[in-house]
């Protein structure tokens, strides 16, 4: 397959790629390091890179003073809840469009895509007022609902492109053998769809976890997920860099791991199947 | 007949999704449209009255609108240019035989998974702080005066942060596209004596045209509504220097409580996004046929 490359070429491209990769990753690494420093060291000039007094005290303080886990739990509930509900609505819809397409299927799909193009700020005012009137401001249920609707088009699209790839012959064979739609769904389709479902869920969890328009505008404290919680560190009274870093490290760690597993699906999901 | 039953079932399975998305799109948009014709301030309840297109006149002639439109265009344009211009060489480099490529890819993609509030605050404090930030230290090291990023070049500082967040996305998509490029084609070109540069210009670049278009369109949709990065770093300031349209509408709605004017602005934002969406939907739609 690959053309032969000289050792020298491999060496040069390896060094180059590692250098730029490290450069791009560096801010995250720097933040993780700062989270193990004392506040004084985090602020110090010249900065210390590895030879500082390592401490985990920031992590303890973040939990004690600001109840980190409360916000982490909010993030889990909001991201997880909105993803689950979106999947429940999207699976039947995508299944129906992939396997019983009509003349209008393409139009419906494109229309769904176009709802994702609507800038959230265009409907900020009515959503905010509706939330205010129904007492949904700073409530988890409200955020679950909004994030679910916001990501629904992407979920349907991703599932649709995955379902499309399931060979139809298999379904026909099952039908010929007299399988009902229910059995077809449970025994034939589901096992083949699980990889697609898993990656759709993963990508949607990531998007919902990091969503920072609705969460910032519609939650303040009680329902505040990690995005809003971290934003509270932007207030100018007191520069707690080490604590900010500790809270941030905790906030991004789970999603970084999930994200690394779903790189391939990321391309597909975010380009609506246009690049695979 | 099974097919008829299937069709009926298919339709009933599709209905909840279509219905919900329809409500999600129509109700708030209709309300925005309605509010945009009212004099409606949350500070002055009960004073709502119909004012026609007055809010649009006010919003569109407000100097803040022109400033924020300009900031939006500069922000979107610069981030697009930077992510594409840096993403292409980076993707090309990562497409070379690299030892430990998977690990390099992990490092490159990582910023995309960092929530916007975290990346903005880490850059603002740990890296860009004018006294204790790492950049200030590096500048001093080479004898330069440290830059006070958020006072001297606030918009550029925001652009840097957003570029860092979106460079992974552009690189990953371009890399995926590069990896699907036919090796034999390149080999043939090389055997015919094509230089690396002309191979790039005549084979690689045309192959990247479509993924580049996709990157531009998708990034534009997200970049038009950059919000959290501005919210936690500059709050739109100093003055209006980092206020984009999204932030302007937010501040009119939830800081000045001027519902009417913010709604008019919201509709303007919808129109701008729709122009972009029009092209994206066409490209994706064409792909659907294939």
TrEMBL record, chain A:
GO terms for biological process: transmembrane transport. GO terms for cellular component: plasma membrane. Keywords: Cell membrane, Membrane, Transmembrane, Transmembrane helix, Transport. It is a multi-pass membrane protein. It is found in: Cell membrane. InterPro entries: BP-dep_ABC_trans_perm, MetI-like, MetI-like_sf. Pfam families: BPD_transp_1 (PF00528). Its main location: membrane. Residues 72-262 form the ABC transmembrane type-1 domain. The chain crosses the membrane at residues 12-33, 76-96, 108-131, 143-163, 184-209, 240-261. PROSITE patterns: ABC_TM1. CDD domains: TM_PBP2. Belongs to the binding-protein-dependent transport system permease family. PANTHER family: INNER MEMBRANE ABC TRANSPORTER PERMEASE PROTEIN YCJP, MALTOSE TRANSPORT SYSTEM PERMEASE-RELATED. This is Sugar ABC transporter permease.
Automatic annotation (TrEMBL), chain B:
It is found in: Cell membrane. It comes from the Bacteria. GO terms for cellular component: plasma membrane. Gene3D superfamilies: MetI-like. CDD domains: TM_PBP2 (cd06261). GO terms for biological process: transmembrane transport. Its main location: membrane. The chain crosses the membrane at residues 12-35, 73-94, 106-123, 155-178, 212-232, 264-284. Keywords: Cell membrane, Membrane, Transmembrane, Transmembrane helix, Transport. Residues 69-280 form the ABC transmembrane type-1 domain. It is a multi-pass membrane protein. Belongs to the binding-protein-dependent transport system permease family. PANTHER family: ABC TRANSPORTER PERMEASE PROTEIN (PTHR30193:SF45). This is Sugar ABC transporter permease. It comes from Bradyrhizobium betae. The lineage of its organism: Bacteria, Pseudomonadati, Pseudomonadota, Alphaproteobacteria, Hyphomicrobiales.
């Amino acid at each position: 397959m690959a053309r032969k490359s000289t050792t020298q070429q491999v060496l040069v491209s390896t060094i180059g790629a590692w250098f730029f990769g490290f450069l791009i990753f560096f801010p995250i690494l720097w933040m993780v390091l700062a989270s193990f420093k004392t506040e004084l060291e985090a602020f110090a000039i010249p900065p210390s890179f590895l030879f500082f007094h390592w401490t985990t005290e920031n992590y303890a303080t973040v939990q004690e003073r600001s109840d980190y886990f409360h916000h982490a739990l909010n993030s889990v509930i909001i991201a997880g809840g909105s993803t689950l509900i979106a999947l429940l609505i999207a699976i039947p819809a995508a299944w129906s469009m992939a396997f019983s397409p009509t003349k209008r299927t393409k139009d419906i799909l494109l229309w769904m895509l176009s709802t994702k193009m609507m800038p959230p700020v265009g409907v900020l005012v009515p959503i905010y007022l509706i939330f205010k009137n129904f007492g949904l401001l700073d409530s988890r249920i409200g955020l679950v609902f909004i994030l679910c609707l916001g990501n629904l088009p992407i979920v349907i699209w991703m599932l649709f492109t995955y379902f499309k790839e399931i060979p139809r012959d298999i379904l026909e064979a099952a039908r010929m053998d007299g399988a009902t739609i229910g059995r077809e769904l449970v025994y034939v389709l589901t096992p083949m769809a699980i990889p697609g479902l898993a990656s759709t869920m993963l990508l949607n969890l990531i998007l919902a976890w990091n969503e920072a328009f609705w969460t910032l505008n519609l939650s303040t404290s009680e329902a505040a997920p990690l995005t809003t919680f971290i934003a509270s560190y932007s207030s100018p009274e007191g520069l707690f860099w080490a604590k900010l870093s500790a809270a941030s490290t905790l906030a991004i760690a789970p999603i970084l791991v999930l994200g690394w597993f779903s790189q391939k699906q990321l391309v597909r999901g975010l380009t609506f199947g246009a690049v695979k | 007949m099974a097919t008829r039953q299937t069709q009926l079932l298919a339709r009933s399975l599709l209905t909840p999704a279509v219905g919900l998305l329809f409500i999600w799109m129509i109700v708030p948009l209709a309300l925005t449209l309605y509010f945009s014709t009212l004099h409606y301030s949350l500070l002055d309840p009960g004073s709502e009255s119909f004012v026609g297109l007055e809010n649009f006149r006010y919003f569109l002639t407000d100097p803040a609108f022109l400033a924020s439109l300009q900031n939006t265009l500069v922000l979107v344009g610069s981030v697009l240019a930077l992510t594409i211009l840096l993403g292409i060489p980076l993707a090309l480099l990562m497409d070379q035989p690299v030892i430990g490529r998977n690990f390099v890819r992990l490092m490159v993609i990582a910023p995309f998974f960092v929530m916007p509030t975290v990346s903005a605050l880490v850059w603002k404090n740990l890296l860009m702080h004018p006294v204790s930030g790492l950049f200030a230290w590096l500048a001093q090291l080479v004898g330069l005066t440290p830059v006070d990023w958020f006072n001297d070049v606030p918009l550029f500082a925001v652009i840097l942060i957003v570029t860092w967040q979106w460079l992974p996305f552009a690189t990953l998509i371009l890399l995926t596209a590069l990896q699907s490029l036919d090796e034999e084609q390149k080999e043939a070109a090389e055997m015919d004596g094509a230089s690396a540069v002309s191979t790039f210009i005549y084979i690689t670049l045309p192959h990247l045209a479509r993924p580049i278009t996709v990157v531009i369109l998708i990034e534009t949709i997200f970049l038009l509504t950059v919000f959290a990065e501005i919210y936690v770093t500059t709050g739109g300031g100093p003055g209006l220097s980092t206020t984009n349209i999204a932030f302007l509408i937010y501040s009119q709605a939830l800081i000045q409580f001027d519902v009417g004017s913010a709604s008019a602005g919201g509709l303007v934002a919808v129109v701008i996004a729709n122009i972009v969406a029009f092209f994206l939907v066409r490209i994706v739609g064409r792909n659907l046929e294939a």
